Amino acid sequence: MATVRLTMAQALVAAMAAQKTTVDGQVAPIFAAVWAIFGHGNVAGLGEALYAMRERLPTLRAHNEQAMAHAAIAFAKTARRRRMMAVTSSIGPGATNMVTAAAVAHVNRLPLLLLPGDVFAGRRPDPVLQQIEDFGDGTVSANDCFRPVSRYFDRITRPEQIIPAFERAMQVLTDPSDCGPVTLALCQDVQTEAYDYPESFFAERLWQPRRLRPDAAELDGAIARLRGAQRPLVVAGGGVLYSEAEQALAQFCTAHGIPVAETQSGKSSLPHAHPLNLGAIGVTGTAAANEAARRADVVLAVGTRLQDFTTGSWTLFADPAVAIIGLNTQAFDAGKHRARPLVADAKAGLVELSAGLSGWTAPAAWRTGAETARADWLATAARYTAAGNAALPSDAQVIGAVQRQSAPGDIVLCAAGGLPGELHKLWQAGAPGGYHMEYGYSCMGYEIAGGLGAKLADPARDVIVMVGDGSYLMMNSEIATSVMLGAKLTIVVLDNRGFGCINRLQNATGGAPFNNLLRDTRHETLPAIDFAAHAASLGAISRKVASLSELETALMEARAHELTSVIVIDTDPLASTDAGGHWWDVAVPETSARDEVRTARRLYDEALARRDN
C-alpha cells in the first residue's frame, strides 16, 4: 500500500480538498473554504497545513468565531446543502464562541464542519492556556460543549484516528436525513504529529445527494388518504428547497389543485404569484393559510419538522379527524404528532405521489375558496406595507419600501425579533431561495454574518439583510469582513431603540414594560447610538434616512454601489401586523399582583382548554 507521510493537520486539509460534489452538472469542491481565527491551539498545526493548501482550499479570516460559523451555515443553506464550509478556532473561548452557531446548524439540519483546537493529548503541559479542567474527569475539555449540538463528535488523540473520523464526518455532512454539524476536536499536539497515511485517503471523491424513494406501503397509504381528502393542504418546509423540489411542488399542486402554506424555512419554495400559494402558516401566518389549516382534513407536511410556530403550538389543525402525512427524509420528523410517515426525499416523494394521484384533484370549491382567500390576504397585506405619514414607520411599512425596490432574484435575509414574523406574513419572495430566514433557532446576531455567507454562496444575487438595532449591536463585525472580501451586502437597520418584539410579548402576557426597550431599562443616560457612523467606521457606505421615501432612494443608490451599504431608519417599537397570525403557547404566571397578568392568565387558561378539548 502506497503511503505519504504527513502531519495529522496536513492529512485532514488534503482530504478536505479532495472531496467534490456536483452543482448544476459541474464538479466543484464540496468545501468552498475554511473560516479561521487562529490561536495557540490551531495556528502551528492546522494553520501551517491550510497555508500550504491555500490555492486549493481557501482560508477566510473573520472577526468573530460565532459570526464566521454563522456565515458558513448561511453559505450551506444558500447552496441547498450541496456545498459547505469548515470553521476552525483555538482552544478555549474561540471554541466556545462557536457553540451557539453549532446549535443553529443542528436545529436547521445544515452541514457545518467545526475544527476547534483541543488540549494536548499527551497531557505534558496540562493545564495548557485556556484549558477547562474537570476535577473528576481528566478527559473533559471545553469542546465537550459541542457534544449535544453536533450530529457527530470526535476528539482526535492519535494522528491515524483522522481517517475513520473524517470518513464518518463526510457521511453525516452529506446525508439528507442525518445532516447537521460535525465537530472534530483536534488535540493541538496531535495536529503536528506525522503518520504514514495511505494515498487512498486523499483520492478525489464525488458526493452526490441521495434521493430516498418512498416505501411502497407508506406511499400507497398516503395516496389513499389524499384521494379521500375533501380539504387537503400542503405545508412546505425547508426540505423542499434542500431537495431542489420547488418545481415538483408547483407541478404537484397545480395538477391536483391543492393549496400550499409555507413555513419560515420553506418560504420561496413556491412562486409567490402561484394562485395556490397561501403564504405563511402558523403563529406568523397569513389569514388565508391559517384558515385553510384550520379546516384541512389531510395535511401533507413536506420537509418540515412541524415546530410550534408552524402548528400554533398544535392548535392550528382544528379538524378532529385531520390526518397528517409526514413526507420527510428523517423518520423522526416524518412521524411527529402521530403523523403517517412517508420517509422519502421531498422531490422523489412528490413525483411518486403525483403519479399515484393521476386523474385526481381536490374539490373545485376548496381550490377556488383558497384562491379567493389568497386574494383577500394580499389586499390586507398591501394596506400594512403601504407608505404612511406617521412620524415613525412600522416594520411592515419598511418591508413594503424594501419590497418595492427589490428585484425578483434578490435574497432577503433575517433571523430574530419581530422582523421574521412580519417578513413571513408580508414578504413576496421572487426566485427560490430568495427568502432566507434563520428561525429554527431564531439566533440574534446571525443576520449580517449570514448575509455574508449567502453572498459568498451566490455572488450573482443581491443580498438584502434586514436587522433590528438589538441584533446589530450583538454582532456587526462581519460588515468589515464583507468589505474586505468584496462581498457586497445591503443592510437595512430598523432602530426601535431596544428589543421591541419581546417588549410586545411582555405586554401581551400582562407584564409591565421592563428591561426591553432602552427607555424601560435601568439607566443614567439613554445611549444615542449612531449606527450609520459605526457602520462607516467598519468600511461600509452608510446613511441614516428620515422617511420611507428616503429609504427607497437609498436602496436604489445602494444597488449601484460596489461596497456594502448600511441604511438606518427609526421605527415604531409598538406597531405590528395584527392581521393573520395564530395563538402561541407562552406560559403566563398563575399568580401575580398585577391585574394585567391575572387577566392574561385567565385568557391563557381558556386557550389551553380549547386546545385540550
UniProtKB/TrEMBL annotation:
<dbReference type="GO" id="GO:0009097">
    <property type="term" value="P:isoleucine biosynthetic process"/>
</dbReference>
<dbReference type="GO" id="GO:0003984">
    <property type="term" value="F:acetolactate synthase activity"/>
</dbReference>
<dbReference type="GO" id="GO:0016823">
    <property type="term" value="F:hydrolase activity, acting on acid carbon-carbon bonds, in ketonic substances"/>
</dbReference>
<dbReference type="Pfam" id="PF00205">
    <property type="entry name" value="TPP_enzyme_M"/>
</dbReference>
<dbReference type="GO" id="GO:0030976">
    <property type="term" value="F:thiamine pyrophosphate binding"/>
</dbReference>
<comment type="similarity">
    <text>Belongs to the TPP enzyme family.</text>
</comment>
<dbReference type="GO" id="GO:0019310">
    <property type="term" value="P:inositol catabolic process"/>
</dbReference>
<keyword id="KW-0378">Hydrolase</keyword>
<keyword id="KW-0786">Thiamine pyrophosphate</keyword>
<dbReference type="GO" id="GO:0000287">
    <property type="term" value="F:magnesium ion binding"/>
</dbReference>
<dbReference type="Pfam" id="PF02775">
    <property type="entry name" value="TPP_enzyme_C"/>
</dbReference>
<dbReference type="InterPro" id="IPR011766">
    <property type="entry name" value="TPP_enzyme_TPP-bd"/>
</dbReference>
<feature type="domain" description="Thiamine pyrophosphate enzyme central">
    <location>
        <begin position="220"/>
        <end position="353"/>
    </location>
</feature>
<dbReference type="InterPro" id="IPR000399">
    <property type="entry name" value="TPP-bd_CS"/>
</dbReference>
<dbReference type="InterPro" id="IPR012001">
    <property type="entry name" value="Thiamin_PyroP_enz_TPP-bd_dom"/>
</dbReference>
<feature type="domain" description="Thiamine pyrophosphate enzyme N-terminal TPP-binding">
    <location>
        <begin position="48"/>
        <end position="131"/>
    </location>
</feature>
<dbReference type="InterPro" id="IPR030817">
    <property type="entry name" value="Myo_inos_IolD"/>
</dbReference>
<dbReference type="InterPro" id="IPR029061">
    <property type="entry name" value="THDP-binding"/>
</dbReference>
<dbReference type="GO" id="GO:0050660">
    <property type="term" value="F:flavin adenine dinucleotide binding"/>
</dbReference>
<dbReference type="GO" id="GO:0009099">
    <property type="term" value="P:L-valine biosynthetic process"/>
</dbReference>
<dbReference type="InterPro" id="IPR045229">
    <property type="entry name" value="TPP_enz"/>
</dbReference>
<feature type="domain" description="Thiamine pyrophosphate enzyme TPP-binding">
    <location>
        <begin position="417"/>
        <end position="568"/>
    </location>
</feature>
<dbReference type="InterPro" id="IPR012000">
    <property type="entry name" value="Thiamin_PyroP_enz_cen_dom"/>
</dbReference>
<protein>
    <submittedName>
        <fullName>3D-(3,5/4)-trihydroxycyclohexane-1,2-dione hydrolase</fullName>
    </submittedName>
</protein>
<dbReference type="InterPro" id="IPR029035">
    <property type="entry name" value="DHS-like_NAD/FAD-binding_dom"/>
</dbReference>
<dbReference type="GO" id="GO:0005948">
    <property type="term" value="C:acetolactate synthase complex"/>
</dbReference>
<dbReference type="Pfam" id="PF02776">
    <property type="entry name" value="TPP_enzyme_N"/>
</dbReference>
